[in-house]
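Lecture notes, unit on protein representations.

Consider one protein chain, 305 amino acids long.
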Amino acid sequence: MSAITSSRGPRPARLVLHGFLIVMALVWIFPLFWAIYSSLRPISDTIQNGYLSWPSGGLSLVNYQTVWSQADLPYYYANTLVIAVPAVILTLLLASMVAFACTQFSWRFNLATLMIFTAGNLLPPQVIIVPLYRIYLNTPIPVWSSIDIGQFSFPIFSDRGLLYDQYIGIMLIHIVFQTGFAAFVLSNYMKTISKEITESAIVDGAHVLRIWWNIVLPLCRPALAALGTLLFTFIYNDFFWALILISTGAKRPITSALNNLQGEFFVNNNLIAAGALLVAIPPVIAYMFLQKQFIAGLTLGSTKG
């Protein structure tokens, strides 16, 4: 019977499904290939022959060389890392503390606390632009020293005594908005960890912070890696908060560097395509290094319950 079924070939429904998936995959990756193709063409050839044509002079990397020097990408890469890396680390630490307290201990307001942190993600960022902008303009912070990365210098806190137009201000807003999401994900993961481990450590005299750092966090390593990859991508790709809360162009992240490539009367779309592809490299690299942990963090616990 199985031989007869196999000789008939795949069922029509499966063929339709595979055809649909292939078409959707092509539609999904078409913009990427189009951006790569455009980035390898000179704008003069595109204007002369149109976008749907093969360049007469062939493909080249001139746009990439131009955007690397014209947009000052190394400086903006460093700018973004100064903002994204500390924000991701602090978000994971704070979110893991909240998830640890809400899942490994039984107290009256643990569920309410987790709901409050999670509810913060339901608030559209645009709703709080005006009050947040005023808070940043009127919040004094200490003037502190700067850190040096190669030939670049970045003030840790403030060079003018205010929270506005500072790296620390962008870090804080990302930490506030991402902690709720991270706490929600980590709490679901920590629920799979038996409370008997925590109770046994307390009986042995271990401090709560020691249990969190030495026992729970190592068990959550796959989830932390998956979350770290997502948070780095979210913060790295942000343009909204940097545009609102930073006025100095030299302090903005790399997403702002693409905006600097636009002229007042003319936009070189091929140059912007090359810049966008260069900007996308760090998140891809981060995913490649954390690929195994990322997939493990997403799939662990999927078969439990």
